[in-house]
Structure formats: C-alpha cells, structure tokens
C-alpha cells in the first residue's frame, strides 16, 4: 500500500483515460494496483490497463489496490476462463480483513466455475464488523456467456447503500437499516481481484473439483476504475468527502434500472438468504421481500425457500441444522459456513 504521511484523507480520482465502458474514469494497473500473490501468474498486458490472472497446479494469483477507500464506485471488466472450470473461483471484492481480523468488512463478487456444459454462476456477499456468522449470500445465473467476452462488474458503496451492477444493470441493492448496526460495512477497505482453487465448495458443494488437465485457467481484468476516497491507513478519518462527480459514475438506481433489476432477479436469481427459511425463520431487517421472487424460489426449492420439512424414517432422521448444511453445501453456499 502507498502511505501518505501527514494527510488524513486524500480524495482521489485516478484518471488516465476515458474508456469505452460508458466513459468511466479508467486507470492503468500500475497507478492503482500492485500484485498480491502468484508470481508470473499475474501478467500486465502491453496497454498497461489490462491484466491476466491465472491458476495452475502451482498457485493462483491476485492483485490489490494501493490504497484503502471509504465509499465510492469500483469497477472492472472481466472475462472468465472457458471450458471445464469446476472448482475455479474468480473474486472481485473489497475487504479490510488484513487490518481488522475479527471485525472486518467485505463486499464480494465471486464467480463460480462449473463442469463442461454447465454455466458459470455469480455470487454476491456482504459482511460488516466481522459478521461472518450471518450469511448474506445471493447467487444468480448469467444471461450471457461470461467467458466469451469482457463484461463490466461494479460496486457502488455509500454511507447508506450498496449496489452490485453487471453491465450497468443493478442486480442487488442493500439499504442500511438501523437494525443492521455495525453489520453494514463502514470501515475503509482495499479492492482485490483473485483467482484460486475452491474445489472444496465452489461447484456442487465440492462434488466437482479443479482438473488441472485444463490449466492454466486465465481470467482477464480490464477497464479498472477506483472512483473513491483514498484514506490514510495510519491516521484514518471517520468521514470522507467524495471525489468530483462524473456523469458516467452512478449514484443510485434509476427507475429504468430498477425495472431491469427486478426483471433480472425474477429470471436469474438462484439463491437469496432473504428467502431461506432454514437459516432465517424471520428475514433480516434489510430484506425487502418480493412476492414474485419468493414464489419462483419456492418452486425451485420448496425445502429451503418454502419452509417445507423433509420427512425421513427414524434411521435417516437428522437435525434441522444438518439438513440446512446439506442444502447449502449442494448449492455451494458453504464457503462461509464450513
């Protein structure tokens, strides 16, 4: 990380060029990021603005932002590996786990590989103040093949809301509630991108593992955007003035976008903690229950989303928590529950 002695807060918009992604303020890799791990498995392309991360039998790879940020808009265009990708996890996320081991915050995009002929899945998650015991996962299918071309994935994080976007379509919105308290992320975070072996949980609860016969698995990151407020990690301020606004940087969800988000969630959402009656008998405070979403998920899985009990003979009877863990394992949601 870069340190800025003597300054509490540096509100920075790193702008080198305006790219094709709706004229977003795109930066070069070296200006905003440094390698996290992976040695030669991270390769900066000739334009200086695109990066290849690869996973092979030796190691995965990743990079991290130079600075910590308190709120802002963070984005990258990503192309995922093709063919057999079971067990492969590509992550684009914000975290401060290196500074706050027991009370960390986190905002996640996780891309979960699959066996040949099955599609990639995308998962989002939110942690605040070390709330890892409270899972807020959602999972979705794609409406396109994410391995054929670059697609834009973005996170808008403000004091009162978090929005995840795919190609400028909001797919999830979390509004801060009083009941959430510290479970709403509120401390400065770094931005990360990684590719790694998640064989133990990523595909059908670990049923299908990474097959290194198909390695290296290569993912491309381009159109890197760090439009936020860089905070001094030594003398952090509790408040931060946002950087100058750009028309291309969203500040919320428009009415047209909300319609697209509702349509996306009705068609492509495969799991949401808000409707999981095994884990939460009463939805958490930030959950805005949509009857159409609930009906679709109940039809998809009446046990998890409808509260319908499984009936077993005496020899096969298990506790409710055991059944819950099996369902979550099969869905690959056990990354935070194992």
UniProtKB/TrEMBL annotation:
Belongs to the glycosyl hydrolase 16 family. Catalyzes xyloglucan endohydrolysis (XEH) and/or endotransglycosylation (XET). Cleaves and religates xyloglucan polymers, an essential constituent of the primary cell wall, and thereby participates in cell wall construction of growing tissues. This is Xyloglucan endotransglucosylase/hydrolase. It comes from Actinidia chinensis var. chinensis. It is found in: Secreted, Cell wall; Secreted, Extracellular space, Apoplast. Residues 19-221 form the GH16 domain. PANTHER family: XYLOGLUCAN ENDOTRANSGLUCOSYLASE/HYDROLASE PROTEIN 8-RELATED (PTHR31062). Gene3D superfamilies: 2.60.120.200. Residues 1-19 form the signal peptide. Keywords: Apoplast, Cell wall, Cell wall biogenesis/degradation, Disulfide bond, Fruit ripening, Glycoprotein, Glycosidase, Glycosyltransferase, Hydrolase, Secreted, Signal, Transferase. InterPro entries: Beta-glucanase-like, Beta-glucanase/XTH, ConA-like_dom_sf, XET_C, XTH.
């Amino acid at each position: 990380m870069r340190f800025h002695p003597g300054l509490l807060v540096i509100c920075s918009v790193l702008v080198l060029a305006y790219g094709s992604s709706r004229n977003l303020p795109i930066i070069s890799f070296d200006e905003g990021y440094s390698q996290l791990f992976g040695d030669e498995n991270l390769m900066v392309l000739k334009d200086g603005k695109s990066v290849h991360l690869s996973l092979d039998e030796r190691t995965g790879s990743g990079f991290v932002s130079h600075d910590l940020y308190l709120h802002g808009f963070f984005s990258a265009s990503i192309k995922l590996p093709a063919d057999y990708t079971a067990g492969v996890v590509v992550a684009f996320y914000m975290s401060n786990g290196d500074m706050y081991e027991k009370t960390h915050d986190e905002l996640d995009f996780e891309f979960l590989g699959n066996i040949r002929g099955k599609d990639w899945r995308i998962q989002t998650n939110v942690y605040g103040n070390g709330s890892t015991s409270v899972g807020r996962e959602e999972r979705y299918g794609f409406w396109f093949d994410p391995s054929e071309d670059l697609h834009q994935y973005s996170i808008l994080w403000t004091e009162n809301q978090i929005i995840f976007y795919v190609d400028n379509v909001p797919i999830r919105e979390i509004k801060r509630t009083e009941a959430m308290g510290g479970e709403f992320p509120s401390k400065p975070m770094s931005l990360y991108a990684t590719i790694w072996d998640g064989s133990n949980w990523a595909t059908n609860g670990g049923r299908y593992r990474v097959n290194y016969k198909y390695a290296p698995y290569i993912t491309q990151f381009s159109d890197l955007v760090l439009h936020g407020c860089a905070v001094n990690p030594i003398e952090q301020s509790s408040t931060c003035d946002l950087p100058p606004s750009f028309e291309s940087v969203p500040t919320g969800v428009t009415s047209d976008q909300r319609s697209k988000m509702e349509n996306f969630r009705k068609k492509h959402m495969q799991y949401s903690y808000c409707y999981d009656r095994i884990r939460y008998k009463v939805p958490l405070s930030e959950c805005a229950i949509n009857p159409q979403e609930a009906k679709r998920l109940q039809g998809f899985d009446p046990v998890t989303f409808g509260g319908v009990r499984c009936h077993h003979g005496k020899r096969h009877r298990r506790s409710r928590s055991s059944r819950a863990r099996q369902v979550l394992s099969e869905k690959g949601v056990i990354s935070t529950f194992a």
